[in-house]
Amino acid sequence: MKKILFACVILTIAQFSLSCFSDDEANSNYFCDKEYRDSNVTLSQQLTPVSELMKSKTGVYLLEEGDAAMISRAWLSEYAEKTIDIQYFIFSADNVGLIATDFLLRAADRGVKVRIIVDDIMVEAEAEELLALDAHPNLEIKIYNPTANIGKNLVSKLYNMTKDFKGFNQRMHNKTFIVDGKVVITGGRNIADEYFNYDHEYNFRDRDVLLLGKVSEQVNKSFEIFWSSKLSVDIDEIVHVFDELNAKEKYEFLHQYACNPENFWPQVRDRIKDIPLSFQKIQESKELIWLDNIQFVSDEPGKNKSDGELDGGGLCSDTLLSLILKAKKSIIIESPYLITTDESRKILHDLVKRGVEIKILTNSMASTDNLEAFSGYQRDREELLATGVKIYEFKPDAAVRKKLLTGELQKDSTNYPIFGLHAKTMLIDDSVSVIGTFNFDPRSLNLNTECFAIIYSKEIGRKLKANMLEDFKSENAWQTTNTMNPDSVSGIYKRLKVKTRRVVPKSIL
User: Fold this and answer.
1) Beta-carbon-side half-sphere exposure of residue 491 (alpha carbons within 13 Å)
2) Are 181 and 155 in contact (CB under 8 A)?
3) Which of 99, 174, 230, 477 has the fewest CB atoms found within 10 Å of its own CB?
């Protein structure tokens, strides 16, 4: 998995990107003077037609396309009135990350209270830039389990790993985006180009779900538990910078970067401004489904705190197991990383024996971004097939990518980027949908905190099944059998690299 930079680094990047302009140009809203926010529009106003429904029900809308998932987050940030609480494993410093952070800063400038929790393991940022963001009076940053990266040198990292290997590996994999305590986006996507299909070389087939109303109370509760946990540490308690931060100057450079049409296309901004009309169309088409029975499940910070082996599970693991064991007819799973154990294979085998059809889509060697995880899957692929489960592996040139790609990026293009699977979804008996962050692997089972929405609805199940089965089609995936797997499609160098990963224990993959 490639190294990701936390979005705070953007303050430096943006500053350098504008170095070609004169001071007068940079300080006179050189780009931003053409951008505006409609001050006559509010989130509450847009939700008025459904405000009564939101008190007792939850509106559910699937976000299949990265473009729609990104635009939804942008509009909600632009028109938030009170709070934005976000929790991510990865918050990148690429183009999407830069612009996302600008939207958050602009919200904070309007008086919206913004709180961010990000896991420590993937963060690579200068202390000054982290603190500059946190210096905004309406924006707070916390780092989850800061044992591996921020404020640590190589010696301290190795010491922490040696002293508490299990604790070092316990990461926060939750992904939630909460606006004004009543609108939620959760699912598989982190904040980076590839999760929204904006990358020119490699993108993900991913999935989120937009939730309005009642279930947001459960999501808010989960966020507050993480925010108040001892494992979530204020950035200014981890690192200290004694030089002048020049925060306002850095914010202005960032605003100019995000307003530059070369970085954020005017066509996309127009689509963001059209969200109210799109929301109205969604309601009229009945694509927004109102339900009584929605559940949000989240592990607690420090999941599986007991000493000893790297197993023991948590609330998400236990809940998923309970759902799976109740299956009567079918289970369809999409999981980018598929690493099984003797116990999990026995469960699957027993389900198949009593007539439950199980189909799983995961990454092929050619499509995966994680060679270690694929190595773990490859080691037990034959044993998994022996359970009677049907396995499909995603193609790097899946035909579905042409539909999912951000329009302006790949318009009229014949050079499409590689795609990998990142959606973490399960559909049980066509009526119980699970959408969230949980991978079918030991890390999600025992180490990472995870979260997901459980949606009890045949109508949502029908929509989700159609989308999932399209990914299983022959133009998008290979069916792997005892006599055929697509490993040979990958070059010999990649195959050799996967073999070298076999030294990594499956328990931490």
Assistant:
1) 2
2) no
3) 230
